[in-house]
Amino acid sequence: MALETVIACPICNGKKFDSFYKCIDYTKSKEEFSLVKCTECNFLITSPRPNSNSLSQYYESENYISHTNNSKNFIDYIYKRVRSITLKWKLNLIKRYKHNGKLLDYGCGTGEFLNVCQLANWQSNGIEPAQVARQKASNLTKLPIAESLNQLASEKFDVITLWHVLEHVEDLNEKISELKGCLAEGGIILIAVPNYESLDAKKYKSSWAGYDVPRHLWHFNQPTMRSLLIKHGLKLLNTTPMKQDSFYVSLLSEKYQHPNANLLTSMVKAFITGLQSNLEARKSQNYSSLVYIVTA
After folding, report:
1. Could you tell me which residues come within 8 angstroms of residue 122 by beta carbon, excluding any fewer than 6 positions away?
2. Per the count of CB atoms within 10 A, which of 30, 190, 288, 292 is most buried?
3. Count of other CB atoms within 10 angstroms of residue 122
4. What is the per-residue pLDDT for 85?
5. Mean per-residue pLDDT for 227-249?
6. What is the pLDDT of residue 83?
C-alpha cells in the first residue's frame, strides 16, 4: 500500500496539524489510519492515507453495502430498510426548492436514489467512479451512468446531489469548482456529510462509524463546511439534519466497539445514543449527519 501525506489544509492552506485519533478500517483491511486536525481552522483530515492508485482497493469489500447492495447480516437489512425511507425523504427535501428539472446524483452508488428521481419524472443523470456499483446503477435505472464529470461535456443541472460523497473526494477544491460549473442558473447543490461534532461522534470517539477510514478522506463540522463554501463563492441556503443517520451510525459504532456483544443489546444502546444525539442537537444543530443546501 502506497501512502501519501496531506501537507496543506485544502480549506485554509494551513500547514500545521495536531494528532486527533488513530482509527481502524473496520470494513476492509483492519489497518490503522491517523486523523489530524488543522491548527488554523480545525478541519479533520485522514493523513497519511492511500494514494490514488491504492485507494480503490479499500472499496472492494462485500461489507461495503453502498457499492454492492448486498445483505449479509441484520445490520445490512436495517440499512436497506432505513434507506427506503430516506430515499423518499431526500426527494421531498429537493421539492422544497425545485419541483422538476435536470438532476445529477454525483456518486450515485448502485442507483437507488436515481431510480426514485426517475419515477418522479426528473431528468436523471448519475456519476459513479466504482465499476461494480456503476454497472448495478445502470442495470437498475436503464441509464448510462458516467464514470466522471468529463463524460457529461458541458451539461448544466438544476439540482446536484452528493449524498455522503464529498468526504470521499480526493481533490476537494477541484471537484467543488467543477460541480459549481455544472450548476444551471438558480440551481442548487445538496451536500450530505457526517458531522464529527455530534454527540454520537463524541461518545464513540475513534470507533465512530462516521470516520470510516481510509475511504473518508475529509471530516467536516459546521464551521469548516461553511468556510469551504465561502471559499468557492457558494451561498448556504439552509442546513438540514439527517436524523435517521444517528441511529444507524451508532449501531455500526457499537458493533465496532463491542464486536462480540449481543445484537439486541447493541441495538438498544444504539437507539438510546441516536436519540440522545438528536435531542442534544436541537440547539446546536450538531446532528450526526447534515445536509447543506447551497447555490452559486
Report:
1. 100, 101, 102, 103, 159
2. 288
3. 21
4. 82
5. 97
6. 74
Which set of grid coordinates corresponds to residue 142?
A: 436503464
Element (H, E) at 268: helix 263-284
Grid cell of 234 as nine digits = 457558494
Three cell numbers, residue 267: 441495538
pLDDT at residue 63, rounded to an integer: 52
Residue labelled with grid coordinates 464513540: 204
Residue 68: band (very low, low, confident or very high) from pLDDT cuts 50, 70, 90: very low
Single-letter amino acid, residue 144: P
Element holding 50 (H helix, E strand) = strand 49-50
Q: How many CA atoms lie within 13 A of 81 on its CB side?
A: 8
Per-residue pLDDT of 272-285, as tens digits, reads 999 999 999 999 99
For residues 140-156, average pLDDT: 91
Give the position of cell 425523504: 89
Instruction: Return the sign of the alpha-carbon dihedral for residues 150, 151, 153, 155.
Output: negative
pLDDT digits (tens, 9 = 90+) for 89-114: 999 999 999 999 999 999 999 999 99
C-alpha cell read off for 268: 438498544
At 71 the three-state DSSP class reads: coil
For residue 57, what are the CA distances in angstroms to 4, 147, 212, 218?
15, 17, 14, 18
Distances (CA, A) of 47 to 4, 83, 216: 7, 30, 11
In the sheet with 123-127, reading across from the earlier edge strand, the strands are 123-127, 102-106, 157-163, 183-194, 289-295, 235-241
Give the burial string for 160-190 (b: 16+ CB within 10 Å, else e): bbbbbbbbbbeebeebbeebbebbeeebbbb
Q: What amino acid occupies position 155?
A: E
